[in-house]
């Protein structure tokens, strides 16, 4: 386990051997990109000033991502996932929003960059698939016209005919039948899954280096969800883009992600390679997410165990570890959980978590929890005594 003043050295090694760096909370952020990754985020903090108080939506999040790699960001609603992605895209309003930290895209700093330059990058080098395609697409314009506009903004020398043909080609590549006909349809004439395919076509029409998919399967049935995820994966292989998939469902990122970032209350709770996070998670919040999911490969004879309570208000984040009011394991640590913010520290090569439990305690508790899961006997409290939520 690294010391409290260390910077987390090496981030998760993905399936293609990528290495990045993550800054531990409270560490000094370097003056430039450290990993050489295509996207690097260092100590990102996003705050919103409201009438009720200051919302600390993202509080010291760091990660790195290379082309061809996939990062899954998971957590409950209100954990800061979408706010992080919008900060990367430069889509926050400047008046009431304060953004600190560093974001580099191919070595170019985005935080504090000229808004006109960020607009040039948005769509050309980075693109985003939003949760609800029906509200993201303009209802008064044909989908072909909307994709043509997105293409010609970054290719002004292309004629309308060339842009239209490029649009038809992209609609065909995302699996929309008769694209030469559907290009002249309106958003309401498409099903939910087809509208999401239109959004993917629009996002990829300029061959961006980075694609952010913000809960791309929300409100879609299971079959269509699988099709959309397979489509994103196949198009990533074709275009070589880096992909960030944002979701509250660990099952969505299980087979797609090289690395996983688990967020809670605007902070990184756990960060590491997908294999490590799934096989040996290091944070009680991750344990709770996994224990509350049904497993198709195991027999479960008892009810799933939910995480007690609800996520905290980001205006009044609990002192100490933000997860401690809901954590079943505070009894193993004592008052430290309520007074001291845990740092994001390496537990193994490239696998970090922000938790006061010792390595031995984590290993023992996860071993017992995973063993009980196999037997269908997940307990709701630790043997040292029940902890109030």
Task: Characterize the structure shown.
The chain is globular. A hairpin with a 2-residue loop joins strand 4 and strand 5 (108-109). Helix content is 31%, strand content 20%. The longest helix has 18 residues, at 222-239. It is of the alpha/beta class. It has helices spanning 81-89, 115-121, 133-136, 143-154, 160-173, 179-182, 192-204, 222-239, 250-253, 274-279, 284-291, 336-339, 359-375, and strands spanning 39-50, 53-65, 70-74, 97-105, 108-109, 126-129, 210-214, 242-247, 259-264, 267-273, 345-348, 351-353. It has one domain: Rossmann fold, CATH 3.40.50.
Produce a short descriptive summary:
The chain is built from 13 helices and twelve strands.
Q: How is this fold's topology laid out?
A:
Elements: E1 39-50, E2 53-65, E3 70-74, H1 81-89, E4 97-105, E5 108-109, H2 115-121, E6 126-129, H3 133-136, H4 143-154, H5 160-173, H6 179-182, H7 192-204, E7 210-214, H8 222-239, E8 242-247, H9 250-253, E9 259-264, E10 267-273, H10 274-279, H11 284-291, H12 336-339, E11 345-348, E12 351-353, H13 359-375
Parallel strand pairs: 3-8, 3-9, 6-7, 7-8
Antiparallel strand pairs: 1-2, 1-4, 4-5, 9-10, 10-12, 11-12
């Amino acid at each position: 386990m690294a010391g409290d003043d260390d910077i987390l050295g090496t981030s998760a090694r993905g399936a293609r051997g990528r290495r990045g760096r993550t800054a531990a909370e409270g560490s000094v952020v370097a003056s430039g990109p450290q990993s050489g990754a295509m996207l690097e985020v260092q100590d990102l903090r996003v705050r919103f000033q409201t009438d009720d108080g200051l919302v600390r939506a993202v509080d010291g999040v760091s990660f790195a991502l290379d082309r061809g790699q996939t990062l899954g960001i998971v957590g409950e609603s209100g954990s800061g996932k979408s706010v992080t992605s919008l900060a990367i895209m430069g889509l926050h309003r400047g008046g009431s929003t304060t953004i600190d930290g560093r974001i580099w895209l191919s070595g170019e700093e985005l935080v504090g960059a000229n808004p006109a330059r960020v607009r040039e990058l948005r769509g050309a080098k980075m693109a985003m698939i939003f949760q609800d395609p029906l509200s993201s697409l303009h209802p008064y314009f044909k989908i072909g016209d909307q994709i043509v506009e997105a293409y010609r903004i970054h290719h002004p020398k292309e004629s309308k005919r060339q842009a239209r043909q490029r649009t038809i080609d992209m609609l065909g590549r995302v699996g929309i039948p008769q694209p030469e006909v559907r290009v002249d349809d309106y958003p309401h004439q498409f099903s939910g899954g087809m509208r999401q395919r239109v959004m993917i076509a629009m996002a990829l029409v300029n061959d961006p280096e980075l694609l952010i998919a913000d809960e791309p399967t929300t409100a879609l049935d299971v079959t269509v969800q699988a099709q959309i995820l397979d489509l994103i994966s196949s198009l990533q292989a074709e275009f070589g883009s880096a992909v960030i998939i944002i979701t509250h469902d660990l099952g969505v990122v299980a087979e797609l992600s090289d690395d996983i970032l688990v967020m809670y209350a605007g902070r990184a709770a756990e960060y590491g390679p997908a294999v490590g996070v799934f096989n040996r998670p290091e944070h009680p919040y991750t344990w709770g997410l996994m224990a509350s999911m049904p497993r198709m490969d195991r027999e479960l004879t008892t009810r799933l165990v939910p995480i007690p309570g609800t996520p905290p208000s980001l205006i009044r984040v609990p002192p100490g570890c933000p997860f401690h009011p809901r954590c079943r394991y505070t009894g193993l640590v004592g008052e430290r959980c309520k007074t001291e913010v845990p740092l994001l520290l390496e537990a193994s090569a490239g696998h970090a978590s922000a938790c006061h439990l010792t390595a031995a305690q984590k290993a023992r508790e996860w071993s017992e929890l995973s063993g009980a899961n196999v037997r269908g006997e997940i307990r709701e409290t630790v043997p040292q005594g029940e902890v109030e939520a």
